[in-house]
Amino acid sequence: MPAPPPVRLLGLTGAPGVGKSTYAASLGRPVVPMDGFHYADVELVRRGLLSAKGVPDTFDAPGYAALLRRVRAGEPDVVAPSFDRVLEQPLAGAIAVPATGPVVTEGSYLLLDEPRWRAARAQIDVVWHLHLDDAVRRERLVARHVEFGKTPDEARAWVSRVDDANARLVEAAAARADLVVELPAG
Ligand SMILES: Nc1ncnc2c1ncn2[C@@H]1O[C@H](COP(=O)(O)OP(=O)(O)OP(=O)(O)O)[C@@H](O)[C@H]1O
Ligand SMILES: [Mg+2]
Fold it and tell me: How far is the CA of 182 from the centre of ligand 2 (A)?
C-alpha cells in the first residue's frame, strides 16, 4: 500500500464493501466516516427515501462538508457522528477529532460530481479511490449484510437492488481521484 500523504485530510473512497472503513482504521489516524451523515430513519421517512437507504440523497452532504470545514479550520472540540451498523442509524457526537494532525475521512460519495458532494470534496486535501475485484467485493458485502442480520437471500437482493447501482456511480467518479489504489483480493 502507498504511504499516506502528509496532509490534514486524506479521503478514501470506493464502491460499497470495497474495504474503505477497514483500510481507514488500519492507518492509525482519527477517522471521520461519511456514513455518520446518513439521515436517520425518521428523516428518511419524511423524505420518502427509507427503502433507498444508502443512495447519495440519503446522506446529509452539506452537514458532512460543514464538519470537514471545521476540522480543516483546526477548530477545537469537533466531535463527529458515527454510523451504528446494529441500529442502522447515525450516532451524533461519537468521534473526537483532534484540532491538529492528520485525519482520514472515508465514504462512497466523496467524488460525485454534484454541488452538495463537491462542497465536501473541496475540504479534503487528497482523495484515494480504492478498487477491488468486483466479485470479491460483492461477496464481502453480502457476508457483511448477513453478519448484521439479513438472511443470505435478503443480502443478495439488497446488493443487487441498491448496492450495485451505487457501486456504478462510485466507479464512474474514480477518474477524479488523486490516486487509484488496487486492493489485493486475497
Ligand atoms: N483485506 C480484507 N480481507 C478480507 N476481508 C476484508 C478486507 N477488508 C475488508 N474486509 C471485509 O469486507 C467487508 C467490507 O469492508 P468495509 O466495511 O471496510 O468496506 P466499506 O468500503 O467501508 O463498506 P461500506 O461502503 O458499506 O461502508 C467487511 O466485512 C470487512 O470485514
Ligand atoms: Mg464503511
Answer: 17
Q: Which ligand is nearest to the CA of 141?
A: 1
CA of residue 128 relative to chain centroid, distance: 12
Number of structural domains found in the chain: 1
Answer whether 26 contacts ligand 1 (Cβ < 6 A).
no
Asked if residue 150 is part of any domain, the answer here is yes
In a domain, 4, yes or no: no
Give pLDDT tens digits for 83-111: 998 899 999 999 999 999 999 999 999 99
CA angle, 13 then 19 then 21, to 5°: 75
H helix or E strand, kind and range, residue 65: helix 61-72
| Sheet strands (E) in the chain | 9-13, 31-33, 78-84, 89-97, 103-106, 126-131, 179-182
Domain range spanning residue 86? 9-182
Rounded distance, CA 85 to CA 173, Å? Answer: 26
| Spatial separation of the C-alpha atoms in residues 38 and 59, rounded to whole Å | 4
Q: Can you give the pTM of this predicted structure?
A: 0.96
DSSP state of 38: B
**pLDDT tens digits for 161-184?**
889 999 999 999 999 999 999 999
Is 146 part of a structural domain of the chain? Answer: yes
Query: Is there an atom of ligand 1 within 6 Å of 36 CB?
Result: no
| Residue percentage of the chain with pLDDT more than 70 | 100
